[in-house]
Design brief:
alpha+beta; 5 helices; binds flavin mononucleotide
Length: 174
């Protein structure tokens, strides 16, 4: 699948089949996350990879009502920022770097025929704290997002958003 096709046809998938995701594909997805740009190449993220269904249920509980897709997912990745590695003058770039890693993983999965949905964790302090407790995260490791993955068992109907919005674009001047 070429990159433009993957970007333009990606949709959030919230229902998954029981087909397992191979370890090779998990590795490819993680490598895609690690391939993104990061502020001063700080690579200030970590990936907590979960396939155990019991742990996926606990992650769903911790993230609240909008995390239901995790319950049927074959794989959940809790993407975390690593403040030990963040750019000292502006550590908040960890949030940008984490977002890029998350989207790279989603697009890599799309290319592999694997569906996914982004489940927001940061900046919801309750969700962040519960994920921290669930995994006993070190203090400098900050929960950013969970991506739920699996082979699609649904095809979202219709576009989620317009392909082109004229009023969002300003050429040369505002
Ligand atoms: C930061 C962020 C947080 C999100 N959190 C959730 C979530 O908690 N639960 C969920 O089902 N979808 C979540 N989504 C997915 C959005 O609802 C979805 O991307 C949006 O409705 C557009 O649909 P599409 O992804 O199919 O294009 C999140 C997306 C982003 C970028």
């Amino acid at each position: 699948m070429d990159i433009i096709t993957a970007i333009m046809n990606r949709r959030s998938i919230r229902k998954f089949t029981e087909q397992e995701i191979s370890d090779a594909d998990v590795t490819t997805i993680l490598k895609a996350g690690m391939a993104g740009p990061s502020c001063v190449n700080s690579r200030d993220w970590s990936f907590l990879v979960v396939k155990d269904p019991n742990t996926l249920q606990k992650m769903a509980d911790a993230n609240g009502q909008y995390a239901q897709p995790l319950r049927g997912a074959r794989l959940g990745i809790l993407l975390c920022g690593d403040l030990n590695r963040a750019f000292p003058p502006a550590k908040d770039y960890w949030i940008v770097d984490g977002s890029i890693a998350a989207q790279n993983m989603i697009l890599a999965a799309k290319g592999l025929g694997i569906g996914s949905v982004w489940l927001g964790t940061w900046p919801e302090s309750g969700r962040m704290e519960k994920q921290r407790q669930l995994f006993s995260l070190p203090e400098e490791i900050i929960p950013h997002s969970i991506i739920a993955f699996g082979y699609p068992a649904e095809e979202p109907k219709g576009p989620a958003h317009p392909e082109w919005e004229e009023d969002r674009v300003h050429f040369e001047k505002w």
